[in-house]
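Justification of computing resources. Each target in the renewal requires a structure prediction run like the one illustrated here; the chain below, 363 residues long, is used simply to show the kind of job we budget for.
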Amino acid sequence: MSAARTGSGSGSGSGSREVDLRHHGDAEVRGADLTDLAVNVRTGTPPAWLKERIAASLDGLAAYPDGRAARRAVAVRHGLAADRVLLTAGAAEAFVLLARAVRARRPVVVHPQFTEPEAALRDAGYEVGRVLLAERDGFRLDPAAVPDDADLVVVGNPTNPTSVLHPAAVLASLARPGRTLVVDEAFMDAVPGERESLAGRVGELPGLVVLRSLTKTWGLAGLRIGYVLADEETVAALERAQPLWPVSSPALAAAEACCAPAALAEAEAAAEGIAADRAHLLARLGEFPAVTVAGPAAGPFVLVRLPGAAAVRAGLRARGFAVRRGDTFPGLGPDWLRLAVRDRATTDRFAAALADVLGRPPR
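Resulting structure tokens:
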């Protein structure tokens, strides 16, 4: 495997220009009536039973939120003690808390990946190093690319936007005393069997912090609910950095409900469905000689490269489809797009629109 590039956080997708770390997929669909392939939230969610649980919590809005039951539910779901769980207003809040509470001399973010970790660290005054993974390696991580003196390392698994699922053993090899290893598993519940998750090794691997989100699989992006799994001291430090009552009562009700055995079984079935729908999307993309797919993909989205991606994105938008630009992810450039996995009928409509934009039928 060829070496990844390591550089300063002042660089960009190519290592030479600045990018907008605050650009996210919702900007592609805001205020527009488009078929959404830009946001990685599962369609048809939240399910009716979850809406009912959230609605039932509204009767208690006069009381301050009490997160104890939800915290216990998350702990049981992962086989951990409750003091190794911190509930947050979405996984994104956790990155801000980490930047505030964890003291680091050389923080490093593995890119391409979700940009909020680096943005939060920069806002906290850090100079952030980047490990830029290469397309020629399938955007897979070689642990040797991470500097030995990095004392805070952030990596996604499966990684947004590449959809690469790193082996748990590879990520575990990065853990060591004196280093905080942050693994963003926001999309792990969309992977059948949650294979390669490190959630069960919290407290075993030194410095391991695992972040999870409930907003993607359950359609709760507007409610904001996620959590941190870490050792007791790290959880306590992050909790001190939080404001009082950071997670609303409806969000707490959702967290508790989504950790129940029936909900976990539903999430597993959804993950299997996503895998089948992703296979169909990959098959349709394979009909276009100009399209190169990064991978192998394991998440509810795929990353593709094609010449003139910006013009293609505009053409798709004119035909009713929103896709996520890739050039705001460090390590990528203007020829990349991210596509959310949708049902087969939507994918087939998208393939027809893409063929029209490219000016020729698929292969």
